[in-house]
Structure formats: C-alpha cells, structure tokens
Amino acid sequence: MLLVYRIPREPSRHRVAVWRKLRDLGALYLQDGVAALPEDAVTREQLEWLQLRVREAGGEATLWEARPGTVAEEAELVEAFRSSREKAYRAIIAEAERVRRKAQMGGGETLLEQLNKLEREFRAERRRDYFRSPLRTEATAALRDSRRAVRAATGTAENRDVGSGK
Amino acid sequence: MLWATRQGCHVDRTACIWLIRRFLDPGATFAFFGDPAEAPEGAELFDVVGARLSHRGEDCSFETFLKEYDLYDPVLREIAEIVHDADLMDEKYARPESEGLDAIVRGMQLSLPDDQTLTGHTDVLYDGLYAYLSREVL
C-alpha cells in the first residue's frame, strides 16, 4: 500500500508526527511524501488513520493499493524492507552480547532491566519486520543467550522478573 | 439497534463491540462492510473515518465511546489504555497486556472465518480482562 501525502510545512509538529508514525510502522519512503507498507489488515488500518490525520492537519493524502510493475522491482522492494531493519537488529544483537558478557563476568545491578528493555525493543522491531529479515533469528538467539547468562548471574532473577511484570 | 463497521476487526473494534453489548445495547446487531459506500442505511457507524464514534485526536474509538456515552467506570478506563496501546502501537500507556491482546486477536482473525464469528468469541476476552482488573482497581 502507498500513502501519498502532502502536509503543510508549518506548524512542523504534524509533519513530524506523521513521519514518526510511519517510521514506527516500518514504512519505506519511495520518495518525499510517498510511503510504502506491505498490506495486511493492521497496516491498512494504520494508514487509514494516518490519512485522516494528514487531512485534519490541512494536508492532502490518498491511499493506494499498488504493486511494482515487474517481479524484479517487487523483489527489490522486499529486499529494501528487509535491509531497513538490519541496523536495528545489529544494535540489539551487539547490546545483547554486551549484557551477556557483563553477566558472565559477575553481573551488575541493572542487567535485568537492560535486558528487559532490549527485549521490548526486539518485539517492536519484529512487529515491523514484514519480510523476516535474516538477522531476526540471530537476534532471537543473542537475546536467549543473554537472558540465560543474566538468570545464572542473578540467583533472584526469577523473583525480580515476576515483581517487575505488574 | 444496528451498528456497522469495517471488515477485518482487530482489538479496537472487537473491544467496541463488547462495550456496546455489555454497556450500551444488549440486543445490538452488527454489520461489517468492505467499503464505507456499502454501509447499511440507518446503521450507527463506528471506527469509520468521519463517524461520530471513531478515532478522535489521539484517542482510539474505544476511548471515544467512553467519552461520548459518559462511561466513567475506572475499569473501563484501564481497558481503554490497553486497547489504545494495542490499536495505535504508540506505547502511550505502556500497558504490558496490550502486546498479548494484540497477538491473540491477530491470531483469532487468522483462525476464524469472518468478523461475525470473531466477535462472537472476543467478548470472553474482554469479560476476562474486566473481571481481572476489577479485583485490582476497586
């Protein structure tokens, strides 16, 4: 699906809010004001609300069901979606390994909190990883190892875990 | 009374339907349309762009329902936070329940044939949430 929109430059907060929402959804900008997302019930709905938001901000927006003209272009687009997630996954993997090493060296007070935050980030990333970036598996494994190490390092990890879950 | 919304119900709309049945209109019937132009005549539309009962400002439709019908139940307010986070994914209230609810309803959408069937099952989820949160809030 494509959201084609134009939004007044001022006040900038509307423009920024729309941009931020599209980024959070994992949309790809094909050009300025043209954002693409794979279609499913949830993305369609999110884009419909975004369209409304642009209009309320005095802009113009249309929503298109579109597909690239050739198989090659479609494959390219899918690849672009996958690689757009790589940076975030790499950061999560690096951070998970850092937490794991620290835990293995005897730990630190806030390792569990750091790990929980990392896992939250991972879940957000997974939600917008529409084409299963190959790094997802790697990130899952890194987080699992990290959690194992943190649990081993902090004997009370289990209790604290339950306590922080509300 | 006949209520109508778009096909492909997720958390916000399944929660609204539960709210309507339990608090507003026990005899409600629901229609689901593909295009707003196909909406049945005379039906009260909800969670549809431009309708009275829809997203408004930062609010999802469930939150708009609470405001439009002056429902001040604190448990419903809590459910509204969970629904908001699951629907808008902006972590406004950081409710941990919303991630689980999102996964369950998405999965039910895949495993059940249509919206009538889906919303015949989802009421139980919200009844459960309501009962669970009632213990904590009251």
Layout of strands and helices, then pairs:
The complex is a heterodimer of chains A (166) and B (138).
Chain A: E1 2-6, H1 12-25, E2 28-31, E3 34-36, H2 41-56, E4 60-64, H3 71-84, H4 86-104, H5 111-127, H6 135-153, H7 157-164
Antiparallel strand pairs in A: 1-3, 1-4, 2-3
Helix pairs in contact in A: 1-2, 4-5, 4-6, 5-6
Chain B: E1 2-6, H1 11-24, E2 29-33, E3 44-45, H2 61-68, H3 74-88, H4 97-111, H5 115-137
Parallel strand pairs in B: 1-2, 1-3
Helix pairs in contact in B: 1-5, 3-4, 3-5
Q: What does this molecule look like?
A:
The complex is a heterodimer of chains A (166) and B (138). By secondary structure, chain A is of the alpha+beta class. Chain A contains 7 helices and 4 strands; from the N terminus they run βαββαβααααα. Chain A has helices spanning 12-25, 41-56, 71-84, 86-104, 111-127, 135-153, 157-164; strands at 2-6, 28-31, 34-36, 60-64. In chain A, a hairpin with a 2-residue loop joins strand 2 (28-31) and strand 3 (34-36). The longest helix of chain A is centred in the middle third of the chain and has 19 residues, at 86-104. The two termini of chain A are 38 Å apart. With 138 residues, chain B is mostly helical. In chain B, 54% of the residues lie in helices and 9% in strands. Chain B contains 5 helices and 3 strands, in the order E-H-E-E-H-H-H-H. Chain B has helices spanning 11-24, 61-68, 74-88, 97-111, 115-137, and strands at residues 2-6, 29-33, 44-45. In chain B, strand 1 (2-6), helix 1 and strand 2 form a beta-alpha-beta unit. In chain B, helix 3 (74-88) packs across helix 4. The longest helix of chain B is centred in the C-terminal third of the chain and has 23 residues, at 115-137. Chain B starts with a strand and ends with a helix. The A-B interface holds A 21, 24-25, 41-42, 44-46, 48-49, 51-52, 123, 127, 165-166 and B 8, 10, 49, 55, 88-90, 96, 99, 106, 109.
